[in-house]
Amino acid sequence: SLVFFNTGLEFRYGFVMPHNSTMKYLVSKPAYGFDLIFFRRTAGNKNWHHIYRKPYVGAGLHYMNFGNPTLLGQAVSGYAFIDFYVNRNKNSGFIYHWGEGIAYITKPFESETNNLNIAVGSHINVFIDLSFGYIWTLRNGIMLKPSLSFTHYSNGSFKKPNLGINIINAKLAINLKTFPTKNNKSDVYAPKKEERKYEFQTFFMAGLHQKDPPMSPVYEVYSLRGQSNYKFSNKHAVGLGIDIFNDHALNALNGESQNKITRTGLFVAYSTLFDNVSFAGQVGYYINDKYNNDGKIYSRFGFSGKVYQGISAGIYLKTHFFVADNIEFGIGYTF
Known about the structure:
Elements: E1 2-17, E2 31-41, H1 47-51, E3 56-65, E4 74-85, E5 93-105, E6 124-137, E7 143-154, E8 165-182, E9 197-210, E10 218-231, E11 236-247, H2 250-254, E12 262-274, E13 277-289, E14 297-308, E15 311-320, E16 323-334
């Protein structure tokens, strides 16, 4: 069978959302940009290809002008993405898009030359793009894809300020089917039976973050996580767990010299599964916290993947009511 690789050009037009009232002066003109994308339909030789209706996977190069070149500048990003069909139509239908990557922003906060940019404090940022749209497959493999997108840039509080830049934009992609390659694996797929099982997972995570005001020291933060999961299908799992955080910024924030860096929290979790990779969202509650200014509720979003037998590696963003606290990198083991 043949798998077709595609190229496309995607045009964007929208506006920066002043999601914090102090950001209104940063919004002047509409934001606009474009993406060069490369993608293909999944081959069908893995279980998750079928349970997610053979989505498209690909990579893109992204450019965005924020509409305020003096204070915000522009962004250039590289990212990977996946497009899922909502219905079971093989050629045309509603899709939702999930893209993540790294962005370079040309005009971050600088204490002397650009101290009015309170949105981003570093050149390097995380790029997240979520959209919902429709694919029309025309003759000769040409596809049109209009969609409405939410695009986000931030550094996970590695460097302040970090309110982030959020953009609502309309997109129109024109995709051209370019060349086929032979696929020898799709015919050997054997559907897996629906699995239901319990598992226990431990993760050690580490990261860095900076607290307000800008130019403050950067502190390390560590966490140890224990989690019990119930996988109730090949696609979904739910879980309960406990976190122990050691955040070295807390002594400075508390004005204390003694050790008050430990927080403990309980959380619930939901995971979407792609064979050996899982995307998870967690909501937790601090049961022990000497620093109460962040509130009692925290959340975590990210993904992990199995690298060898029961060993996994992951990256997550921890937030307090969607205000980034830190990006966590870690390694874990699943029993």
